[in-house]
Amino acid sequence: MAEKSSTHKEYVAGFLAGIATVVVGHPFDTVKVKLQKHNTEGHQIKYKNGLHCAARILKNEGVTGLYRGATSSFVGVAFESSLFFGMYSQMKQSLQGRLKSSGPDPLVIIPSAAYSGAAISFVLCPSELLKCRMQVQGTDSLIPNSVRYNGPIDCALRTIETEGVRGIFRGGVATLLRESLGGTVFFCVYEYVRHFMHSKLEAASHDHKSLTEFGTGVISGGLAGVAFWSAVLPLDVAKTIIQTDPDIRSTRNPFQVLHSVYRMAGIRGCYAGLGPTLLRAFPANAAAIATLEFAIKFLGIERE
Question: 3-303: CATH homologous superfamily?
């Protein structure tokens, strides 16, 4: 799939896709983070499942509780999405030109996806650290002497004050591994599903072309999102634990963290938050890709 476009338009389209992701997916993400934090530790707070967690948030905090931490998430995910899709598109175009490939090519998709995923991890790590710390401090944060933040800026300043600038990048290794591996899975599924659907629907009449494009974006994006999180959820569990651990001396090695979780909670602990994560993955990523495809068309980015 060859693409011809001005560089900045690809980044604008990705930015809009990121906003759509947060609007649709953040409530699910809040439930996921609380499950990962509280159901993998030894204190008294436990949730039966994602529905129980969501119900407790709504009862104690209302709908706003589900969007706790959304401010940093809007900023982080929007810019991350802009870089993610923009850098992927640029590198893919470059490799396609050299390899002269037509249709999805793993020699093009894999390095482009891994590169863009690794690059955005440096933007995503600080914003997710602030988001996660804000999410776990809700009314269920009943741990004695737990830190309370007034907002993401207060969280950032206090993190730097107590842990230094390095503290903002706590969980960086886990984020890098999650995004590079997950990005590869995401774009492989997205490109192949999109190519397959277009090949089957290319005979669709012009009157239904817009609807066909929208449906293709929803299905390819949704399936790619599910594949992403199915592949990397344990790394995300490790990242959440690392970023929300009040002990600044605790390990930042995601594999050591997962080993500790496995010893205490088994494989189920390594997949804490699986339910809300997968429930979020399809609609959030479907919204992202549908928005991306719409923005590409609106901005006049040509695609073959």
Answer: Mitochondrial carrier domain (1.50.40.10)
